[in-house]
Amino acid sequence: xxxxxxxxxxxxxxxxxxxxxxxxxxxxxxxxxxxxxxxxxxxxxxxxxxxxxxxxxxxxxxxxxxxxxxxxxxxxxxxxxxxxxxxxxxxxxxxxxxxxxxxxxxxxxxxxxxxxxxxxxxxxxxxxxxxxxxxxxxxxxxxxxxxxxxxxxxxxxxxxxxxxxxxxxxxxxxxxxxxxxxxxxxxxxxxxxxxxxxxxxxxxxxxxxxxxxxxxxxxxx
Length: 221
Prior knowledge:
By secondary structure, this protein is α/β, with parallel strands linked by helices. It has helices at residues 20-27, 31-52, 58-72, 79-87, 98-107, 120-130, 152-162, 176-184; strands at 4-8, 111-116, 139-141, 169-173, 188-192, 209-211. The longest helix has 22 residues, at 31-52. The chain is globular and about 55 Å long.
């Protein structure tokens, strides 16, 4: 049976640190550190809300994480600046390897879906902005079941939505927590190790495959 590739969006296809450029206008050399902390808190807040079963959309986790990061660095952004930086999440850039890799997979008629914590409309807008939406047969958003990765429910939902048996469903993600979640639910999983410094969590599980960029997916299928 043909394989299906489910791509994580934020951090795998889309560079979340694309916000650094706009932040640099206001906070200078602290922008990169600010962006890193914001991203870490964004994920932490999603984890916590999932565990507490106090769901709020990923966009709310993103906004709350921005508020925390401003307080942590003692940076005062105006409401207009906060809105601009939040809105920039809809116009983040893709990584350089994304378009050629997706084009090659599409040419081979590999079924692909986008799989994200983000709300479907936001993900669709982002994929359209960078010009890759046409490679995907659909968007599987965790928002539809009101929880977040790595809850096992989201991977079961992915299996149902793609109509793919777990053994033929490959999760592609740069986030180790996501890879471990997928593996624990019986999926195949490709870790995209975009940085040489990235460390995979020592949980007794290893990715089915590790690549340094998406062009390494050419051997799948």
